[in-house]
Amino acid sequence: MRIGPKYKIARRLGERVFSKTQTTKFTVSGTEQKQRGKNRRKTMSEYGTQLIEKQKARYTYGVTEKQFSSYVKKARSIKGGNPTNELYTMLERRLDNTVYRLGLAKSRALARQMVSHGHITLNGRKVTIPSCVISKDDVVAVRGGSREKGLFKDLAENLQTHTTPNWLIFDVDKKEGVVKSIPAYGEGESNLNFSTILEFYSRV
């Protein structure tokens, strides 16, 4: 997905939605900007607030508008489901996001690259589609031929400061993770308001 100037976009949204903005420099220089953004949104229209929230989610997960609107449509079409939870679950269950959540990559962008370049396996088979959806009991691992590559050289050290969500289990020695359960909205950490996002799409 092609993205414009990331610092400018992140400041406009008031969130560090890109790995490039996960720095002390951005935090210091962006704090006042973020506060001004909050003040501005107090007078922003409801539509504008919903649009900002949708864009935050899109950039956070690194999906195109076409992909995102497709997820929304699917979330709403599930009989007996909660659209808010369904949308969150669909995004979290993407293979690139799962690789990121396991701590194999420091950002979702790097996770997408890992998958696209064939470094990741799903249930023992190489998968090169970042949007591939994982299920309960699936095994996500670093491909045997990639385990000694520089991308994973400092994996054990990096994982010392990484918190794996409750729905995943990771074995650092095997360099593989197991999907223990399906992620649910509200159980994990999320700074995104998916209800507001769905309200945006009810207008368009």
Written description of the protein model:
The protein is α+β, with helices and mostly antiparallel strands and 204 residues long. It has a domain at 94-179: Structural Genomics Hypothetical 15.5 Kd Protein In mrcA-pckA Intergenic Region, Chain A, CATH 3.10.290. Helix content is 47%, strand content 8%. It has helices spanning 6-13, 24-42, 46-61, 65-77, 83-92, 95-102, 108-116, 155-159, 194-201; strands at residues 120-122, 125-126, 139-142, 168-171, 176-179. Strands 2-1-3-5-4 form a five-stranded antiparallel sheet, with helices on one face. The radius of gyration is 18 Å and the shape is globular. The two termini are 22 Å apart. Mean pLDDT is 85; it is low at 28-32.
Topology:
Blueprint: H1 6-13, H2 24-42, H3 46-61, H4 65-77, H5 83-92, H6 95-102, H7 108-116, E1 120-122, E2 125-126, E3 139-142, H8 155-159, E4 168-171, E5 176-179, H9 194-201
Antiparallel strand pairs: 1-2, 1-3, 3-5, 4-5
Task: Give me some keywords for this one.
204 residues, alpha+beta, Structural Genomics Hypothetical 15.5 Kd Protein In mrcA-pckA Intergenic Region, Chain A, five-stranded antiparallel sheet, 9 helices, 47% helix, globular
